[in-house]
From TrEMBL:
This is Aminopeptidase N. Residues 455-563 form the Peptidase M1 alanyl aminopeptidase Ig-like fold domain. It catalyses: Release of an N-terminal amino acid, Xaa-|-Yaa- from a peptide, amide or arylamide. Xaa is preferably Ala, but may be most amino acids including Pro (slow action). When a terminal hydrophobic residue is followed by a prolyl residue, the two may be released as an intact Xaa-Pro dipeptide. One of its GO terms (molecular function) is alanyl aminopeptidase activity. Residues 567-895 form the Peptidase M1 alanyl aminopeptidase C-terminal domain. It comes from the Bacteria. Its EC number is 3.4.11.2. Gene3D superfamilies: 2.60.40.1840, 3.30.2010.30, Neutral Protease Domain 2, Peptidase M1, alanyl aminopeptidase, C-terminal domain, tricorn interacting facor f3 domain.
Length: 896
């Protein structure tokens, strides 16, 4: 890796249009693993809207330059340098042909052209194309591509690229070729090629306009039986986008290819999506309910990019959320519609809860740390570091607020206008905002601040009821509290916050709502447009003092501060008609109790759980009118990571003690109920990957997990052992193994060890399942006699472990560092020393993966002094040794 001790900061304010434009690209590849020849012929012209440039500058990394010619004549005025290639003495319009070499076999970064399992793959977003050929590798340079692939036919019988297949045939010496054409202009980050020994599942479908489309899912031969769900998800995605947004598949064919070595989840290359195998391969024996749901969501996400990202793309990488935030919103809506349609609010709420849990645990933490940045960042050193929760998940919430403000129909009008104005263009977040505003006749100038301000807003709520006048006053105040310095620096004024509210009467029913000045009541949930630093809304005709239900369906990505009593939260948990807020009330109740217990645990004081909390959980557990999936979410305690972040000083050990105490107390107090739930929610018969069946399995397995917390876990061991042996699906088998590992901390661990050994023997030829095997061990509770760090270190030497494979590194190392806080934050600092060693090792192989791991310590300043000093030492060790700008940006910002 190149040493980048003094990396360049790229700033949004410095954007300038490219000096040259590339209209067409003809690529020819002679694919050889150690020495691939790339011939790149471009039609180039000066950009009339840009400043004149003396040289034509192209980006290039890890390439060997061979030759250049202009308009068919060799051109010697070419200089290679650290960042690429300079071509001097160029006319205003010309055809440039460049020949270069690259070595895919040695490309462990998995960016550009690389080899995995003896097959060729590419990953070009964000800046991987410059590792394939010299190019103007930026998203606002859009061209049409023709691609010719040549390779040994026996070794690489399948040759794929973007768009439509024009021609294919045999060549001398056992080689063959395929020629592809993508008729749509695209930036280079959407280029893709695949070559290798692959097989396909294919189907033909008709689009809404009656055109036949060929759909293909390509995998290695032994994985063909795991492709049906991905194909069904693709078909469902195509149908949904036609019905919801009127958007049809625009190519004659659409291809998905699965690869085991991949830095991300998937990539939306035009017509040739390349996926991590994790988000394609599934059958009941190898994939959990969560895997099935994730595959549907990710297939949907990448397909929806065909319009929101491909047909309309980003002007520059600062606008990344233009495509990612919008497309995450679209895949969330797709998943919600697949679960509950447009009208089943309870089923849709389950998806909403799952999404908000992720946002709060990960994005809110990002907002509070040194990597805090706006949805549209103002600067970066390494763009790969800004594929963040803020850009994706908070960006999605910003898009959702448009729909909350304008409704589904208004949002659709805005989308229609957006495509009408910008199809085939590279545009900005402001262009999207203007389309939504113009389509709905609104001024959204203030809404721009959601794109330019970092940090998580806090909305403080105060209320007053005037019994004589039957008036209820709600005063909202907005600010950022103790935001991270990065967040404070970006704040420019109050936001437009769509704040959904309901009022609940003493009988648990919603009250009809009429704001002062309105002629009549309208509905029981109102979206208040909160635009000032402080603003008061007065409801009239309120005959009794109500209980407010605040920020229904999480209508904005903010933290609500309102002093509910424990009794009020229990009332909301029992009665709120908004499913999200019903769940939210339970989480608030649990969080309040857990933080109080953690504070006591930190001082060594005795712990006691209030009976009201147990009773509230019991009421949800036994309420058969609630869906199993909702109950499972409502009965799941807030995570240790989230709880630690709510403390004045994060104390993982105290949080773990408190949370385990509550889990044990709920297990003991509700033992008979858990046993009854476990029996009642069995799913006999063949496995079905449906939301309903998945909900029953989730609640049943949550009951098993609680039973494993008992001081005497004999019942749990018996049930889990029988479930493991009889399981006909991975959801139940993995849950049983997890319960056995938990129970082993309180008793004999022989049954857990037997199951671990059996699990490996059964699935040693299934890489994705072995990833689960590693992850289960990395996230187990451990004990003083056998800390998990020792288990993880031992597994690093296991024959199945390979640090070069991102999935395997994530399954063991990331799982330990990010998903086992009590063990990772051990007082002796062993977790931090392990983290530092792995970041340094990964940095030499794959800086993108290393940078993701590096972020595990970015909030180090918020921990107790003893932990803080050990974290600082680990960060300084990493800073002194890593070379990539990916990791350096993370650790240097963390150290400040």
């Amino acid at each position: 890796m190149a040493d980048t001790a003094t990396p360049t900061v790229i700033r949004r304010a410095d954007y300038a249009p490219p000096a040259f434009l590339i209209d067409t690209v003809a690529l020819e590849f002679d694919l050889v693993p150690e020495r691939t020849v790339v011939r790149n012929t471009m039609r180039v012209r000066r950009n009339p809207d840009a400043a004149h440039a003396a040289h034509f500058e192209l980006m290039g990394e890890q390439l060997e330059f061979v030759s250049a010619s202009i308009d068919g004549t060799p051109h010697s005025a070419v200089r290679t340098h650290e960042h690429g290639l300079s071509v001097d003495n160029v006319p205003d319009a010309f055809e440039l042909t460049l020949v270069s070499l690259c070595n895919p076999t040695e490309n462990t970064t998995l960016s550009g052209l690389y080899v995995s399992s003896d097959n060729f793959f590419t990953q070009c977003e964000a800046e991987g194309f410059r590792r394939i050929t010299y190019f103007l590798d930026r998203p606002d340079v859009m061209a049409t591509y023709t691609v010719t692939l040549r390779a040994d036919k026996a070794a690489y019988p399948v040759l794929l690229s973007n768009g439509n297949l024009l021609d294919e045939g045999d060549l001398p010496d056992g080689r063959h070729f395929a020629r592809w054409e993508d008729p749509f202009r695209k930036p280079s980050y959407l280029f893709a090629l695949v070559a290798g020994k692959l097989v396909k599942l294919e189907e033909r479908v008709r689009s809404g306009s009656g055109k036949e489309k060929l759909l293909q899912v390509w995998v290695e031969p032994h994985d063909l039986d795991k492709t049906r769900h991905a194909m069904d998800s693709l078909i469902n995605s195509i149908r949904w986008d036609e019905q919801r947004f009127g958007l049809e598949l625009d190519l004659d064919r659409f291809m998905i290819v699965a690869v085991g070595d991949f830095n991300m989840g998937a990539m939306e290359n035009k017509g040739l999506n390349i996926f991590n195998t994790k988000y394609v391969l599934a059958n009941p024996e190898t994939a959990t309910d969560t895997d099935f749901a994730n595959i549907e969501a990710v297939v949907g996400h990448e397909y929806f990019h065909n319009w929101t990202g491909n047909r309309v793309t980003c002007r520059d990488w600062f606008q990344l959320s233009l495509k990612e935030g919008l497309t995450v919103f679209r895949d969330q809506e797709f998943s919600a519609d697949m679960a509950g349609g447009a009208t089943d609010e309870a089923a849709r709420a389950t998806k909403r809860i799952e999404d908000v849990r992720v946002l709060r645990q990960m994005q809110f933490a990002e907002d509070a740390g040194p990597m805090a940045h706006p949805v549209r960042p103002e600067s970066y050193v390494e763009i790969n570091n800004f594929y963040t929760m803020t850009v994706y998940e908070k960006g999605s919430e910003v898009v959702r607020m448009y729909q909350t403000l304008f409704g589904r129909d208004g949002f659709r009008r805005g989308m229609d206008l957006y495509f009408k104005r910008h199809d085939g263009q590279a545009v900005t977040c402001d262009d999207f905002r203007h389309a939504l505003a113009d389509a709905n006749g609104r001024d959204l100038a203030q809404f721009e601040r959601w794109y330019s301000q970092a940090g998580t807003p806090r909305v403080t709520v105060s209320t007053h009821y005037d019994a004589a006048q039957h008036r209820y006053r709600v005063t909202l105040s907005q600010g950022y509290g103790d935001a991270a310095p990065t967040a404070r620096e970006t704040q420019k004024g109050p936001l437009l916050i769509p704040f959904a509210i309901g009022l609940i009467g003493a009988n648990g029913a919603d009250l009809p709502l009429r704001l002062e000045g309105e002629t009549g009541a309208s509905g029981t949930t109102r979206v208040l447009e909160f635009t000032q630093t402080e603003q008061t809304f007065t409801f009239v005709d309120i005959a009794e003092k109500p209980l407010p239900s605040l920020l229904r369906n999480f209508s904005a990505p903010v933290i609500v501060e309102y002093d509910y009593s424990a009794e009020e939260l229990a009332f909301l948990l029992a009665h709120d008609s908004d499913p999200f807020n019903r769940w939210e009330a339970g989480q608030r109740l649990a969080t309040r109790e857990l933080l109080s217990l953690a504070a006591r645990a930190a001082t060594g004081a005795s712990l006691q759980l209030d009976d009201s909390v147990v009773n509230a959980f019991a009421q949800v557990l036994t309420d058969e009118t609630l869906s199993p999936s909702f109950r499972e979410l409502a009965l799941m305690l807030p995570s240790e990571t989230y709880l630690a972040e709510q403390m004045p000083e994060s104390n993982p050990a105290a949080v773990h003690t408190a949370r385990q105490f509550v889990r044990r107390r709920l297990a003991e107090a509700l033992k008979n109920d858990w046993l009854a739930i476990y029996e009642r929610h069995q799913t006999p018969g063949d496995y079905e990957a449906t939301p309903d069946a998945g909900g029953h399995r989730a609640l049943k397995n949550l009951a098993l997990a609680y039973l494993a917390e008992l001081a005497d876990p004999a019942d749990a061991v018996r049930l889990a052992g029988a479930q493991y042996d009889a399981a006909n699906n991975m959801t139940d088998r993995a849950a049983a193994l997890s319960a056995l590992l938990t129970a082993a901390t309180a008793g004999d661990g022989r049954r857990a060890q037997e199951a671990l050994e059996d699990f490996y023997r059964r699935f040693e030829k299934e890489p994705l399942v072995i990833d689960k095997w590693f992850a289960l061990q990395a996230t187990q509770r451990g004990s003083a006699q056998r800390p998990v760090i020792d288990i993880v270190r031992a597994l690093m030497s296991h024959p199945a472990f390979n640090l070069k494979n991102p999935n395997r590194a994530r399954s063991l190392i990331f799982s330990f560092c990010a998903a086992n806080p009590a063990q990772f934050h051990a007082e002796d600092g062993s977790g931090y020393a392990f983290w530092a060693d792995q970041v340094i090792a990964l940095d030499a192989l794959n800086p993108q993966v290393a940078a993701r791991l590096a972020r595990s310590l970015e909030l180090w300043r918020r921990f107790t002094p003893a932990l803080r000093e050990k974290m600082r030492g680990a960060l300084e060790k990493v800073a002194a040794q890593v070379k990539s700008r990916d990791v350096r940006e993370i650790v240097e910002k963390a150290l400040g």
